[in-house]
Amino acid sequence: MRPRALLLASSVSCLLLLGGCGNQRQQPSDLGRVSAGKAFLAYVNPKAGVSFGYPQGWTVTKGRAPLLARIEQGNALASIYLYRRTDLAVDPAGIEAARGRLLASLRRRAPSFRVSGTEITELNGTPAVEIRGSGRVGSRRVRTLSVHAYKPDGEYVVDAYAAPAAYEKADKVAFQPLLQTLRVRNPLPSATGG
Question: Which of 8, 23, 56, 162 is the most buried (most CB within 10 A)?
Answer without folding.
Answer: 162
